Amino acid sequence: MDAVHEPPAEALGETPEFELECLYDDAADPAELTVFAPENQRLTTEWVTADVSTAVPLEDVR
Q1: CA distances from 13 to 9, 40, 44 (A)
Q2: Greater model confidence, 17 or 2
Q3: I need a labelling partner for 45 at 20 to 30 A (CA). Which of 20, 35, 39, 59 fits?
């Protein structure tokens, strides 16, 4: 059984888009990165913060 379900091609055109920005705690040696929507868009999640020591490269996730 395959755990990955590909959405139908027509559903991909309906995916919402968001304007996101990010800030980090130290420009010279960032340890945390926070991603957020700059405008008050009333999103379910207002921001996401990732700690560098626990982050996984995107290439390793795929």
Answers
A1: 7, 24, 21
A2: 17
A3: 59
By the 8 A CB rule, do 55 and 40 touch? no
Sign of the C-alpha dihedral computed for residues 41, 44, 46 and 48 taken in this order: negative
Give the up-direction half-sphere exposure of residue 61: CA atoms within 13 A in the CB hemisphere.
Answer: 4
Q: Find the mean pLDDT for residues 16-20.
A: 79
Q: Which residue has the tokens 């868009």?
A: 41
Task: Find, among 54, 55, 34, 31, the residue nearest to 45 by Cα.
Answer: 34
Pairing state between β 21-24 and 32-36: antiparallel
Distance, in Å, from the CA atom of 61 to the CA atom of 35, rounded to the nearest integer, reads: 18
Does the predicted TM-score (pTM) go above 0.85? no
Distance of alpha carbon 53 from alpha carbon 55, whole angstroms: 6
